[in-house]
Specification:
Elements: H1 2-7, H2 11-25, E1 31-37, H3 38-46, E2 57-64, H4 66-69, H5 72-82, E3 87-91, H6 93-96, H7 105-110, E4 115-117, H8 121-130, E5 135-140, H9 147-159, E6 165-169, H10 174-184, E7 191-195, H11 196-202, H12 208-213, E8 218-221, H13 225-240, E9 246-248, H14 260-269, E10 270-277, E11 281-290, H15 299-302, H16 318-322, H17 346-349, H18 354-363
Parallel strand pairs: 1-2, 1-7, 3-4, 3-5, 5-6, 7-8, 8-9
Antiparallel strand pairs: 10-11
Helix pairs in contact: 2-13, 3-18, 9-14
This protein binds iron/sulfur cluster (SF4).
Protein name: Hydrogenase expression/formation protein HypD
GO biological process, one term: protein maturation
Keywords: Iron, Metal-binding
Amino acid sequence: TLKYVDEFRDGTLARTILAKLKKQCAGRAPMRFMEICGTHTVSIFRSGLRPLLPSTVELISGPGCPVCVTASEDIDKAIWFASQPDTIVATFGDLLRVPGSRTSLAQERAQGADVRMVYSAMDAVALAEENPDKEVVFIGIGFETTAPTVAAAVTMANRQGIQNFSVFSAHKVLPPAMEALLSSGDLRLDGFLCPGHVTTVIGAKAYEDVASRYRMPCVVAGFEPLDILHGLWMLVEQRLSGEARVDVQYRRGVTWEGNTAAQRLMAQVFRPANAVWRGLGPIARSGLAFRDEWARFDATQRFSVPTLSVREDPACRCGDVLRGVLAPLQCPLFRKVCTPQNPKGPCMVSSEGTCGAYFKYAYDG
Ligand code: SF4
């Protein structure tokens, strides 16, 4: 497969597309595109594309980092689950160090809470099987790429008759957040670079409303440097021709309809629900809640979770970074107080976080 990956990192081809992009933008007004997803943000930094782009093309990062957009309240809930007796909390590694109102899962673990890092929801089901005398709560964060795998784990636990497994569903779906960003009116934007992996599941049609209602060009792009350059070229092309539609650059992975089997699985277990996003606040139908038939796997119904008083560090500007209205370098804490070793907010903790990417690639050589 490396052969195929290499094809999408070909330097000569990259220079050719860059030259075309520069020609296309020459003498044109500046344009601002948002890469919605953290995977794009990291890839853009890692490949060193940013300084090579025409000076009139500005890239801003969006809210597509699952750890970063998890509301403080949900982080606090995850920590609350970890404080319950005979309970194991299973979660993805990135979430461990995100500061909640008072503490983090990692700090709670150091104090004796049973918090385990897992790579998938299936690992958490296995953990439940191995520990029948404990409750295992999986903290379900992530977008449409992750949610079907969690749905699959839930149906598997059901088939196997596992009684001590539940999920705290803090999953999010992307298109409603894109609409919320645009309707807020505080973001000037010329187009969205949409994520290849999420769109493999939801299909390019998922952005049709965003494109038509807000007259916003959308291009679904892969994550290799050539994909990104090609995607940007397609965005500029659309913008300059005055059009607003959904184009797919990542044709080797994305169809218009998406992965209908994964969509069915997700819809079998979850239903759309309102959700609170860090930085963006509550957004209608942007989350996934358990359908009634699966309520026994819903950690919030299995446990009596109290209302928790949330306290956010007012100095952390993650919310503004996620809305694309502030660059990490403009946050007064960036690098001075907030570092990957001592993160003040999730955007610095997560491997897909914008602040973390700026720190690692813009400052660490
Ligand atoms: Fe928050 Fe740190 Fe990013 Fe500032 S640099 S917005 S404190 S995560």
